[in-house]
Inverse folding.
């Protein structure tokens, strides 16, 4: 789970360390914890992130919740880029620019997959060139 400036829970913190997307300032781990938390500590140390060992009450205070599963990461706030910097990325990579802008997305896990309408075509009748029917294909054409 995520609060302002912190990520807590074993899997969210592991994914944060593996992805390297946001800068992690510190990982606070339950003192004396073993098992899955050992992997969190190892990844954090490999990444050069400060690791501190705390009590359960201290972790709950940092996370603002008692559902921290023994680990809390303090992260830097998200960084934003201006439009000019975004437009330079495809040029530098030598790729065709492709951007998808979404507005008012309430739940990012439920965005679905934006698809164009199905391919429609006119099929002529074998008996008469003037007769036919409009068909719709289940395949998507991009």
């Amino acid at each position: 789970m995520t609060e302002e400036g912190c990520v807590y829970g074993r899997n969210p913190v592991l994914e944060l360390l593996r992805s390297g997307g946001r800068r992690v300032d510190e990982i606070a781990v339950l003192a004396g914890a073993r098992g899955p938390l050992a992997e969190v500590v190892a990844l954090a140390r490999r990444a050069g992130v400060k690791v501190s060992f705390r009590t359960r009450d201290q972790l709950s205070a940092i996370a603002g919740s008692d559902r921290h599963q023994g680990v809390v990461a303090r992260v830097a706030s998200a960084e934003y880029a201006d439009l000019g910097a975004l437009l330079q990325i495809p040029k530098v990579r030598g790729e065709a620019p492709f951007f998808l802008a979404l507005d008012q997305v309430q739940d990012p896990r439920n965005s679905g997959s934006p698809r164009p309408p199905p391919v429609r075509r006119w099929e002529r009748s074998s008996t008469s060139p003037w007769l036919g029917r409009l068909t719709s294909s289940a395949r998507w054409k991009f």
Summary: Confidence is low (pLDDT under 50) at residues 138-142. The helical segments are 10-19, 36-46, 56-63, 83-93. Residues 2-75 form a domain with the 60s Ribosomal Protein L30; Chain: A; fold (CATH 3.30.1330.30).
